[in-house]
Specification:
Elements (H helix, E strand, L loop, with lengths): L4 H11 L8 E5 L2 E17 L2 E8 L8 E4 L3 E8 L7 E4 L25 E7 L5 E7 L9 E7 L13 E10 L4 H11 L8 E4 L16 E4 L4 E8 L5 E6 L4 E6 L2 E8 L1 E4 L4 E7 L8 E9 L11 E7 L11 E2 L9 H8 L20 E13 L13 E7 L2 E3 L6 H6 L33 E3 L2 E4 L3 E9 L8 E5 L4 E8 L18 E2 L1 E4 L3 E9 L3 E7 L2 H5 L3 E6 L20
Parallel strand pairs: 2-5, 4-9, 10-13, 12-20, 19-21, 22-27, 24-25, 26-34
Antiparallel strand pairs: 1-2, 2-3, 5-7, 6-8, 8-9, 10-11, 13-18, 14-17, 14-19, 15-16, 15-18, 19-20, 22-23, 27-32, 28-31, 28-33, 29-30, 29-32, 33-34
Length: 577
Amino acid sequence: MGTSPEITMILFVAVGCFMAYPEAVTAKHTGITRHYTFNIKPKNIIRLCHTKSIVTVNGKFPGPRVIIREGDRLLVKVVNHVPNNISIHWHGVRQLRSGWADGPSYITQCPIQIGHSYVYNFTVTGQRGTLFWHAHISWLRATVYGPLIILPRRNESYPFVKPYKEVPILFGEWFNADPEAVINQSLQTGGGPNVSDAYTFNGLPGPLYNCSAKDTYKLKVKPGKTYLLRLINAALNDELFFSIADHSLTVVEADAVYVKPFETNVLMITPGQTTNVLLRAKSTAPNVSFLMLARPYATGMGTFDNTTVAGILEYETPSSSLKNRPLLKPGLPAINATNFVANFTSKFRSLATAKFPANVPQKVDKKFFFTVGLGTKPCPKNQTCQGPTNTTKFAASMNNISFALPRTALLQSHFFSQYSKGVYTTDFPAFPLIPFNYTGTPPNNTLVNNGTKLVVIPFNTSVEVVLQDTSILGAESHPLHLHGYNFYVVGQGFGNFDPENDPPNFNLVDPVERNTIGVPSGGWVAIRFQADNPGVWLMHCHFDVHQSWGLGMAWVVLDGELPNQKLPPPPSDLPKC
């Protein structure tokens, strides 16, 4: 039960301070097969002087690091020991012809029930960098998440200076209450959910919270060394600003895709996004320590957790004591600094080199225009609700369709097409059925339609989607995540998208390639991708509250004609509903 000494040594050399112990490793083709076991089990932990039982993987919070190389095959056996149904999503992994391993409950699989197990079996092809894994059912990912680190192939180097050490930092969101109870209450009353009690770095809230000084994340650095920080926003409902006092950061990767390097003092990362940055330590150790802070970027009208998580960057020195050092504090933008975020987002560009090309679809086969935003559902009879009015509940939608999860998995229904009748329909609208002034005065009728509606597209279709925020119940930034694909962000802007004047300004040369993008508050973003991966793929807001309210849809990408363009049959241990 552990890697061989040779493999262990290779991993230590490759990732510096990382420690990973896959259970067994076997050679295969160009990569190797790595085995992990995830035991889903409860654990009592204390945060903010509050003890509670949380759902974990292997009793760890955050969960274990999964470390592989590009080209490796990953076999993860997930065994469920808790009453909650569970599934694990490998966020950002392309899952080429392995959609059965993608993980969102009721989309590509039924969830794993207590006492049952499922082996996620997939190969990581053409990807390297920082991703993460998390539970993909209800709000369990509040505590069930961890880093997925894909190293370059052996003998391949980074397209930037080799770091002295690599350090994953996961942004999280802590609730004193049970997150499942929080969202269940919200869905019952129709009101906004209670907000979290703290943000965390690697599970630790830090000294700005009640009785949490001992629970502070500390990053110790040596003078003159360069560190690769693998930043992951695993928070449930909040985009976050991040900064380290008196240190600039060089952005080198986003969502496991290398980008043209640029320097910044402040980052903004949405839930579902990852950003790799180089931190160059000062050449001589200063006699101070430095706070690293993260706090929300919030644009909506609802309440949010307006607190700040703090960690400490300390320089290692042989002599002087750390205890009496003063702490420097970084500045962060205003909570609603929309222009800063737009400017920051526009700095991301693909490398677009021969080795790391930007294969942007130059011609588009199918164009889509999706509104994303909030809305309302009627309150049940004889009940008073806590939505925008006492007769309505909060809802969310794309093109005014609020996505309803089916009771069986969509991918299974699609694959065995005789079962699809009654599970879903294929009439998700390509454009809003009733156009309106999307970012102007909202319409009087804010009711949404419910449905499990999908879009069907042929294999290898080149797709363009314009995602348009609306002002219904307040304009708001929405981090949209697409499963099974990366996409190119070819354009963005404020106000309503102009189909005549905006496309000529699209960047079709070196746009950033991502799996999650923030739709600007009161604006739009345009993405393109090549539908070369057959299966059923969820696209949703990565604010869990909005996903719970129905802000999502799914694509059915049909099989191609060749054998390597078809989805294989499901594995024999695929969970049943």
